[in-house]
C-alpha cells in the first residue's frame, strides 16, 4: 500500500524551457552554459555529481563524487584507486554521471567511458588540496572494512606526524579519472511533468541532437 504522505509529494516545474533550436551544437558548450548558471546561482556544491558504476557481477553502484574539471577530454574527478568504485571501473569502464541542480530544475545525464588521468594531472590536483585532505587520502584504506573510527583517527595521527616537516607526496593508489562522454542528456523541468529532454549522441565523430519524450 502506498504511503499517501510520500506519494502526494510533488512540485510543478515552471522556471525555464529548453528547445533543440536554441542549444549549442556541442554538448560541452551547452554544459558550460548551464554550469555558469549553476555556479553563479549560489547553489550548494554545484559540482556534486552521482557516479554510477557496475560491479563485476552486474549490480549497479552509485555514489556522489565531485567534479574537478571539464573540457573536450571529458569530466574529471579524483578518488582512491583501490576503492570499490575503482574496482568497478577497472572491470567495466562504462559509467554514467548525473548532475541534479534542484534550484534550477535541471539535470544533466552523461554516459561515457572512464580512464585514469595522467600522473601529472593527479599530482597537480593533489598538491592543491588542503593538508588535511592530503593526509586523509594517505591514511584511509577507502572502502575496506576497518575495526572502528579510532583506527582511522590513529592512522591520520600517524600520517600527520610523519609529514610535520614536509609536504605529503601523492600516494600511488590515489588519483584522477576522466569520463569521456558518448551521450549527454540535458533535462529541464516543465509543468505537468512534460519536461524538456535534449539528447546529444556521438556518432562518427559528430554530435547528433534529438528531443526525447518526457
Helix and strand run: HHEEEEHEEHHHEEE
Largest sheet: 9 strands, antiparallel
The end-to-end span amounts to: 27 Å
Number of strands: 9
Kindly state the percentage of residues in helix: 25-40%
The share of residues in extended strands comes to 25-35%
Q: Helix segment count?
A: 6
Global shape: globular
Work out the radius of gyration.
20 Å
Q: Are there runs of 5+ residues with pLDDT below 50, and where?
A: none
Structural class: alpha+beta
Could you report the average pLDDT, rounded to the nearest whole number? 95
List keywords for this structure.
214 residues; alpha+beta; 9-stranded antiparallel sheet; 6 helices; 28% helix
Give a quick summary of the entry.
The chain is 28% helix and 34% strand. The chain has helices at 4-7, 27-40, 84-91, 119-128, 131-139, 149-162, and strands at 48-54, 60-66, 69-71, 74-80, 94-101, 106-116, 174-188, 196-203, 206-212.
Structure description:
- 28% of the residues lie in helices and 34% in strands.
- It contains six helices and nine strands, in the order ααββββαββαααβββ.
- Strands 1, 2, 3, 4, 5, 6, 7, 8 and 9 form a nine-stranded antiparallel beta sheet that branches.
- A hairpin with a 2-residue loop joins strand 3 (69-71) and strand 4 (74-80).
- The model has no long low-confidence stretch (mean pLDDT 95).
